[in-house]
Amino acid sequence: MMELFWTPEATQDRDEIYNYIxxxxxxxxxxxxxxxxxxxxxxxDHPGLGQAGAPAAHAPPPLLWRAGTxxxxxxxxxxxxx
Length: 82
Description:
2 helices; 3-stranded mixed beta sheet; RelE/ParE_toxin_dom_sf
């Protein structure tokens, strides 16, 4: 089974998104953070889901990753901050 690694940058992105949303809506921040974790977990089992690598210019994906012998999350984005 492939292992999942969050880069420091992706971890910082995730923390910043959480903190920004939590200031106005703690429940929504928790729900979104859990969604990021769920989606990342799915990528471990199915690394071909979505598109790895550079995001499209018009709509960056919520998670940017690299797959090889391990899955490395490079960035974590929220639509409002993209």
